[in-house]
Amino acid sequence: MSHLKVNLIKCLSDNYSYIIFNPNSKKAIIVDPAEANPLADAITKFNLNLKYILITHHHQDHVDGNIELKNKFNCKILGFADDSKRIPGIDILIKDKEIFNFEDEEIQLNFSPGHTSGHVFYYFKKNKLAFVGDVVFALGCGRIFEGTAKDMYRSVMKIKSLPDEVKVFCGHEYTESNLKFCLAYDQNNDHLTKRAVEIKSLRSKGLPTVPTTILNEKQTNIFFRCNDKAISQKLGLAGHSEEKVFKKLRELKDNF
Ligand code: ZN
Ligand code: FE
User: How many whole angstroms separate alpha carbon 13 and alpha carbon 32?
Assistant: First the structure.
């Protein structure tokens, strides 16, 4: 199996775009080009051969580099078939659960609505990487713009069901503000207290807190912990469903 490398590229004010490449063949993929220039510079600098751009959702800060990068590197743009009209320059339309081959990796598109109605995440099965756009963030989850809390809950649970060791790459650096929210409603969590120290140290040096892992999120992300008794009790929802707790947390976070 080829071990793919991931370069995190900071874009705009708090976006992360990703370059995933095979260091031997130099063939590369970009996920969610927030803007063309920093990505084009990195592709050129590392002498990569950009083959594909994968899109998680149609928001401007995830597709703005599409056309410029496609013109410059002659790559193909790939996204969810059902949302193809909103993805600039799309060439290859993929269905839910469909697998797309890159080198010997199998990349699976997974429908994950809630933030937008056509949001998807990409799971690299062999390398155990997940590119989740704006569905899950380190210690948080995306805002619901198109869809219901139920949609978002199901999408987050889909990501939570990936293997513990999967590395999770999200679309933004929102971790410090997410941390404040988690600390407010999940007060006796040793994993969270420990992670808070790591996050503060990374951010004080201007370093990213991404990627995270599924296990790390299960232990510390409050949106992954809606089945925790202390949390539901704190919200006055003891004995209620995980989904109900999730919905309440999303509402509280919107006004936090
Ligand atoms: Zn978005
Ligand atoms: Fe975004």
Answer: 15
Can you tell me which residue has the tokens 């003891």? Answer: 238
State pLDDT tens for residues 24-81.
999 999 999 999 999 999 999 999 999 999 999 999 999 999 999 999 999 999 999 9
Ligand closest to CA 58:
1
**Crossing angle of the two packed helices 242-254 and 175-185, in degrees rounded to 10:** 120
Confidence tier at 2 by pLDDT (50, 70, 90): confident
Give 239 Cα–ligand 2 centroid separation in angstroms.
34
- CA distances in angstroms from 42 to 31, 55, 159, listed in the order given: 14, 19, 29
Is pTM beyond 0.90? Reply is: yes
Q: Which ligand is nearest to the CA of 118?
A: 1
Per-residue pLDDT, 1: 78
Å from CA of 142 to ligand 2 middle: 9
Structure tokens of 114? 């809630």
CA angle 79, 85, 90 (to 5 degrees): 40
CA of 24 to the centre of ligand 1 (A): 33
* Tally of helices (H runs) and strands (E runs) in the chain: 9, 14
Ligand 2 centroid to residue 191 C-alpha, Å? 27
